[in-house]
Amino acid sequence: MHIDFSPEDLAFRDEVRTFIAENYPAELRGKQDEGDELSKEDFLSWHRVLHKKGWVAPAWPVEYGGTGWTPTQRFIFSEETARADCIRLMPFGLSMVGPVIYTFGTPEQKAKFLPRILSGEDWWCQGYSEPGAGSDLASLRTKAERDGDHYVVNGQKTWTTMAQHADWGFFLVRTNPDVKQQEGISFLLIDMKSPGIEVRPIITLGGEHEVNEVFLDNVRVPIENRVYEEDKGWTCAKFLLAHERTGIAGVAGSKRGIEKIKEIATTEMDGERALLANPFFRRKVAELEMDLTALEYTELRTLAGEAAGKGPGPESSVLKIKGSEIQQRITELALEAAGHYGAPYFRGFGEGDNEHPIGPDWAHRTAPSYFNVRKTTIYGGSNEVQRGIIAKMVLGL
Amino acid sequence: MDLSFTETQGMLRETLARFLADTYDIESRKKMLTRPEGRDPGIWKAIATELGLTCAPFAEEHGGMGGGAIENMIMMEEFGKVIAIEPWLQTVVIGGGALKHAGGALAEATIPAIISGDCVIAFAYAEPQGRYNLADIGTTAKADGAGYVLNGHKGVVYAAPWATHLLVTARTGGGRRDRAGVELFLIEANRPGITRRDYPTVDGFMASEVYFENVAIPGEALLTGGIDLIERVVDEATVAVCAEASGIARTMVNSTVEYTKQRKQFGQPIGKFQVLQHRMSDMFVEAEQVSSMALMGTLKLDEAPEARKAAVSMAKAKVGKSLKFVGQNAIQTHGGIGITMELAIGHYFKRGTMIEGQFGSIDHHLDRFEALTYPA
Asked: Which pTM does this prediction carry?
């Protein structure tokens, strides 16, 4: 047991580092530095670069387009991309529906969808939550009824992230209302350009348009677009939730977040001293680093367990709970560091206003981020749901 | 990077776990505490000779198996699971560690005696005024011919009543808190001029106030390395109690869960109540953080001193916080029975609570981490 990198690993790290330095899209970097909201094209620009290199889906099996990297190489890759402040790729295709399709899909589904997920040709969204089915996801009511070789889907989904850009969506729908809730759900792939689909924006506290409502009115979906068996969609959903939670620790991104706070608190002054020299602020940063290190080693232990053939089991709920709390504390400290300049609202400056934002460069994003990131303890199964999973699945209560 | 245990390491864990399961149920432990010496010395002898485990963390040239910190982590975790009152920390981790690092004739003579179970070491480093500053030392070692003469008072020396040897920090020069002039000596515990006041500790061990009055010791008792060696050994000990804490936290979570499945109120097992389920889930999460930090600290012990100290302090601070959370909530969830001597849980809580302060409190370690990590 050791945590040193082998010479091969170090060479790989240098290769990744060089590749990022030489290939990260300059325009995207500029927008990130300015704190601009990113467009679909921005997200896809980095996705395409990685796809061309063959690095867009490190976790996938090689036969479907994965890299075949060792767990250590995957760890290095995520460290390096976070260190270089690369944007996170949209997870809906790569981390969510992709693994469901290569695990449960038919050969035709694999051939049709997987290459387009890798290339970024299809933008995916996730049709899970409904106005009446949040934490209690299995109570969902959007229904799909058979009509010949089609399903006819009616209902409403909500909190559908980036649906405004989506070409395809994966939906949980009720195909049998007469059985136990979990046993009457199917997993459908729906073309978002189908007649009867309407996407309406929801504007969140930071002013962003990230999430949407999706209305489905007699949407016709070919039966071959159902993944796995009819009424067995919950199996796919559970698989996907466990998958979603391992990545959700967000360790590498949070490391970068703490580095940024330390940079900020070194230049921001608090009277005669740097903010980081204020013992109370510094203690909060130190405890954040400490908690993140504990999370990092919890994730490494989980990965080691996976490599030995265990999981990802319900222990991934631990990663979700701790990871999301840490992400929130980072934005909390950044906002605190901004002082007065957390208040100016960038959108208040009007379209086409290219003036330098008011206050320090980074400050105008702190409050919107703080507001936005309240989502992390709510989405992907709220942290209360995660505690319920641990109680039931791990502790046997 | 490789976080898997070897087959041998797995067998070491198995061997100790099976032995402790047979010898260390809570009622047997309670009986040990009532003996005059506060333990059953036969258990230590068995661990050393019958099971042959004391050789695990020592080099082959000293008669060991070639292991190190990982083996100590495994052992300490298992001891934690049964809150064993054995001197592994003091004898093997601290005494053995100091000897390994210092090397020389004393190491060659003493390590085999540790492995055979004949040499039991206590670490006399704390002083009444010193709190957690390892250099705040009033005990003096004055050069006298080829040897030294010791004078001073060491406080709360765990395992001293059982010890054949004392590992003592003392000042050969410099002022009260100077790093220079602090040295480490290994001496026989029965040297003329040494007196002890023995007492039990709240967590089930025996300890002593140890007084040195003109104790003549030979020059060969000096382990070269000074304060740097002492800090290294204390860091290794700190990580070892983190591993012990991992076993304790895990067991407290399991015991609490089991108790809430049995205990009925309002017509149902109290484990059915969501408020308690979520609390126990949080305890589980924190226990996982303890294990993760014990591992992190262990893996960083061979880093350069600054990086090692920062990592160890981070580990210990987090372990202290998480262990406090697990322990306090374990007691609260048990209710009244949790604050009695009757069930095991209270005894785990007591040992856990002492670990929080052992080798430095949460605040001490956060201070040290910050001082090393952030610019002044």
From this structure: 0.94
